[in-house]
């Protein structure tokens, strides 16, 4: 094969079988010599792969062998080399999360889908929302709130009734999760350059956690989120079924 591929797979039986078959059929290049990563699994495993190998700046071509495959291509082992050569790249910019906790520590994390805040107990969360240093909501009473990238807008954001964002739109979705007050606020679409800050009010009585994709920080006091201007990742998609088409088609699902 002309492509220098490093194969990875989720722990499911089907994905592990595909990994074994791929290595037998095509061999494998060590990670530090590869020019592309092929991932077998679902969207959750794709996010793990992006986080694990982000520093190497290699494009990732996924094949669906999981429950959800929005970020994946169809599984087919034939003509893999040609499929990768023909694949169209989609560049994603991750969200950067900076958290201050009750203990006084500062934690940083990266999210390709969304950063979400969720209440930790039966008590509703009380959150102050600021954009670029200006308070926009003095107190949001809710189960939580999230900030989503366009690539993540069809995931948790959509389940929370947030808008679907086209790739390349240079906007982010700010979506409340089960908001109680103010009752009529349903979120906002923000320019991608916006810095968002969430302050947890009464955090001792009403503890809140923050999650960047699957990385969780508990007992938070304040969270600042912004889109990275330096880090990018590249996903590869078959021309007949690229990510922009999937996001467009998702808006017509009933």
UniProtKB/TrEMBL annotation:
<dbReference type="InterPro" id="IPR016064">
    <property type="entry name" value="NAD/diacylglycerol_kinase_sf"/>
</dbReference>
<dbReference type="GO" id="GO:0051287">
    <property type="term" value="F:NAD binding"/>
</dbReference>
<feature type="binding site">
    <location>
        <begin position="43"/>
        <end position="44"/>
    </location>
    <ligand>
        <name>NAD(+)</name>
    </ligand>
</feature>
<dbReference type="InterPro" id="IPR017437">
    <property type="entry name" value="ATP-NAD_kinase_PpnK-typ_C"/>
</dbReference>
<keyword id="KW-0520">NAD</keyword>
<keyword id="KW-0521">NADP</keyword>
<feature type="active site" description="Proton acceptor">
    <location>
        <position position="43"/>
    </location>
</feature>
<feature type="binding site">
    <location>
        <position position="151"/>
    </location>
    <ligand>
        <name>NAD(+)</name>
    </ligand>
</feature>
<dbReference type="InterPro" id="IPR002504">
    <property type="entry name" value="NADK"/>
</dbReference>
<feature type="binding site">
    <location>
        <begin position="113"/>
        <end position="114"/>
    </location>
    <ligand>
        <name>NAD(+)</name>
    </ligand>
</feature>
<keyword id="KW-0808">Transferase</keyword>
<keyword id="KW-0963">Cytoplasm</keyword>
<dbReference type="GO" id="GO:0005524">
    <property type="term" value="F:ATP binding"/>
</dbReference>
<dbReference type="Pfam" id="PF20143">
    <property type="entry name" value="NAD_kinase_C"/>
</dbReference>
<dbReference type="InterPro" id="IPR017438">
    <property type="entry name" value="ATP-NAD_kinase_N"/>
</dbReference>
<keyword id="KW-0418">Kinase</keyword>
<comment type="similarity">
    <text>Belongs to the NAD kinase family.</text>
</comment>
<dbReference type="GO" id="GO:0019674">
    <property type="term" value="P:NAD+ metabolic process"/>
</dbReference>
<keyword id="KW-0547">Nucleotide-binding</keyword>
<feature type="binding site">
    <location>
        <position position="143"/>
    </location>
    <ligand>
        <name>NAD(+)</name>
    </ligand>
</feature>
<dbReference type="GO" id="GO:0003951">
    <property type="term" value="F:NAD+ kinase activity"/>
</dbReference>
<feature type="binding site">
    <location>
        <begin position="154"/>
        <end position="159"/>
    </location>
    <ligand>
        <name>NAD(+)</name>
    </ligand>
</feature>
<protein>
    <recommendedName>
        <fullName>NAD kinase</fullName>
        <ecNumber>2.7.1.23</ecNumber>
    </recommendedName>
</protein>
<comment type="function">
    <text>Involved in the regulation of the intracellular balance of NAD and NADP, and is a key enzyme in the biosynthesis of NADP. Catalyzes specifically the phosphorylation on 2'-hydroxyl of the adenosine moiety of NAD to yield NADP.</text>
</comment>
<keyword id="KW-0067">ATP-binding</keyword>
<dbReference type="GO" id="GO:0006741">
    <property type="term" value="P:NADP+ biosynthetic process"/>
</dbReference>
<dbReference type="GO" id="GO:0005737">
    <property type="term" value="C:cytoplasm"/>
</dbReference>
<dbReference type="GO" id="GO:0046872">
    <property type="term" value="F:metal ion binding"/>
</dbReference>
